[in-house]
Amino acid sequence: xxPSGQTAPPVPPSEVVITAIAAAVLFAVALILHxxxxxxxxxxxxxxxxxxxxxxxxxxxxxGTARRARRR
Length: 72
What we know:
Layout: H1 18-36, H2 45-61
């Protein structure tokens, strides 16, 4: 519970955290490839880690968080 006089931050809707989830998945794939010492041709561990970092940066920058207004 937040201290008195402060409100709790809003819980983000599921659409907002898509880039964070995708980044986590890419980091997991990179970890599995690294632990198994595998490479998928040009897609090695570094490529998956860089893609995950890109998605994490986009998430932190707020890309994809704006809601679209409905048109009537």
